[in-house]
Amino acid sequence: xxxxxxxxxxxxxxxxxxxxxxxxxxxxxxxxxxxxxxxxxxxxxxxxxxxxxxxxxxxxxxxxxxxxxxxxxxxxxxxxxxxxxxxxxxxxxxxxxxxxxxxxxxxxxxxxxxxxxxxxxxxxxxxxxxxxxxxxxxxxxxxxxxxxxxxxxxxxxxxxxxxxxxxxxxxxxxxxxxxxxxxxxxxxxxxxxxxxxxxxxxxxxxxxxxxxxxxxxxxxxxxxxxxxxxxxxxxxxxxxxxxxxxxxxxxxxxxxxxxxxxxxxxxxxxxxxxxxxxxxxxxxxxxxxxxxxxxxxxxxxxxxxxxxxxxxxxxxxxxxxxxxxxxxxxxxxxxxxxxxxxxxxxxxxxxxxxxxxxxxxxxxxxxxxxxxxxxxxxxxxxxxxxxxxxxxxxxxxxxx
Length: 400
Description:
Blueprint: H1 6-9, H2 20-30, E1 36-38, H3 49-60, H4 73-87, E2 96-99, H5 101-113, E3 119-124, H6 130-136, E4 140-145, H7 156-166, E5 170-174, H8 186-199, E6 202-206, E7 231-236, E8 249-252, H9 255-267, H10 274-284, H11 288-310, E9 316-317, E10 325-329, H12 337-348, E11 350-354, E12 365-369, H13 374-399
Parallel strand pairs: 1-11, 3-4, 3-5, 5-6, 6-7
Antiparallel strand pairs: 2-8, 7-8, 9-10, 10-12, 11-12
Helix pairs in contact: 3-10, 4-10, 5-6, 7-8, 11-13
């Protein structure tokens, strides 16, 4: 058969996609084994039935044909209103295009900002799809390292140096951050914005966790001086409204960029089903109270985790300012994140994501999704900590 394109055969750079432990856990579940799955960011409570009812009514009313490709006007206006309310940046429907989820928005944003072969910067640790998304858009991913000692916050000087060295076309940031939970403070964002303005590149800001902030406050880099014209913000209802399967997201940016993204949508997704957009509009019109209710279990479990982890010394938690995950340091066990996650799954049927799935800087860490009921979460986290303590003691004994 003819060869496949190098673009598709190199999406994972010839290696892992980072999801092996997740796949192993799902195979066990398919075999009837009970596994506590703390891998992906999937709410244990599904989409509000009222939202599904709005979708159902819209479908029955006939909104099942081709939809407006940039998004139905009312939805774009509602997204713009929400963005303005939260950021203070003047935003209209001309600044918004609706996409099939945040992942499609990330791809479209890189296609819009990166010519083939140029460098696209991103921060390490990073969400597992980032590098493949950049490659799919024809660009070359380049990671800018962070350190656990600084809470995995990016150093603007390191970003500036990387941008100079590579002549980067874009920088992808994510705050609140998946996997680390870091919420970028004003000083960090000011430094990144200064670099973007000075070196004239785009910033793609993944803000899908903006409703899940436990400490501090979320600040969009688009709100900083001179950044609205060089920033594409990725948003989604997946996390804020437990609508992961509905595939509804957006990009907010300059009208000229949004107009070109319309052209891309015509030749790729051809829009999002109208009845799903109607459901999204209904969801957003429920206001902040609905979003706060969706986020509440994760805030509660973060406190449960803080209490459990604070009572032991084998496993350390990276300070978590936001998002639905914990990022845990397992280096005291002597195992890599991959080995720890596999051993935990084998011994206790608890599935977590290895830090190595999220980049080299995350080696020796694991990500724990706070996505099971409180009692199950409490029990699983205590077992994880006890398992880590056993391994750490065995390591010390072997070293004597």
